[in-house]
Inverse folding.
């Protein structure tokens, strides 16, 4: 099939027939996955092919009972993966430099590109696909479920199979609102109204704002995902201000928690003190590590002395 024809027809598929993908086609999909571009040859991504029905069922539940996770012939979880790079460097006696934010940036980019190459190849072969951001709804449980080591983070799910539904492609924004020339062009009120008019068919009732509000406004889906996502980042070692495994959304959240249990927190170079009325607890290291240690001492989770 011509590539432009594939792009013109593509849409997300959420209903699949109970038919497997032949091994020769699966090989083509995985070949495409690995031919995606990657920065500096590092290939900071992995993918888990979910074949266990029980695992799929649990991921579907965590993702908000998305039935197409169960139905699709193949279901993958795309992963940002810095763990393998760290192991490769250690295998040659080298230590990974501290660059967690940059690592996350390029690892998510690599995972997204690899998934897109797999998806586009699947659609060219006549299959339906659906990227599933809903796997982030249960990101902390998913890390445990998939046994992800530090340095690995779920990015998205990808369902692939024989489609059991038809329909037109979803609308897209007018190109002039997406493609800027030389400088970023500010949006006028008319530009924004044009966007809503163009995207109105995306909503069953013709109101795209209902979709945006449900996901992105205050009280929406993305807001609910933010705190567990931040905790998962810290746990997997992608927060530069907290030590790997820290159960907090951010250094600010850790500080708020510490202040709920103490009258004050004192930072000095290489240490932090959590102070109560009659006692104080000390931690060493960078600010996040030192404060977390002091808080754990105050809670009796680790010995305060020696």
């Amino acid at each position: 099939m011509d590539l432009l024809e594939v792009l013109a027809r593509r849409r997300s598929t959420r209903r699949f027939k109970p038919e497997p993908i032949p091994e020769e086609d699966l090989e083509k999909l995985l070949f495409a996955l690995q031919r995606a571009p990657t920065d500096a040859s590092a290939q900071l991504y992995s993918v888990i092919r979910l074949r266990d029905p029980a695992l799929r069922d649990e991921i579907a539940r965590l993702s908000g009972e998305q039935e197409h996770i169960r139905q699709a012939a193949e279901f993958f979880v795309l992963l940002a993966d810095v763990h393998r790079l760290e192991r490769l460097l250690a295998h040659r006696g080298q230590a990974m430099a501290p660059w967690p934010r940059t690592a996350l940036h390029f690892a998510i980019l690599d995972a997204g590109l690899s998934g897109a190459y797999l998806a586009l190849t699947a659609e060219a072969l006549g299959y339906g696909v659906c990227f599933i951001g809903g796997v982030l709804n249960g990101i902390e449980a998913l890390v445990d479920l998939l046994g992800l080591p530090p340095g690995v983070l779920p990015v998205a799910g990808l369902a692939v199979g024989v489609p059991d539904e038809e329909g037109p492609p979803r609308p897209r924004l007018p190109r002039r609102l997406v493609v800027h020339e030389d400088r970023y062009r500010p949006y006028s009120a008319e530009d924004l109204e044009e966007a809503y008019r163009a995207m109105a068919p995306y909503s069953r009732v013709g109101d795209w704002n209902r979709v945006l509000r449900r996901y992105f406004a205050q009280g929406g889906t993305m807001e609910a995902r933010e705190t567990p996502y931040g905790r998962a980042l810290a746990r997997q070692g992608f927060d530069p201000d907290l030590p790997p495994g820290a159960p907090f959304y951010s250094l600010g959240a850790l500080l708020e928690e510490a202040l709920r249990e103490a009258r004050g927190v004192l930072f000095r170079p290489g240490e932090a003190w959590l102070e109560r009325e009659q006692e104080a607890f000390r931690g060493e290291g960078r600010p996040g590590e030192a404060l977390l240690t002091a808080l754990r001492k105050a809670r009796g989770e680790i010995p305060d002395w020696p």
About this structure: The CA atoms of residues 89 and 95 lie 6 Å apart.
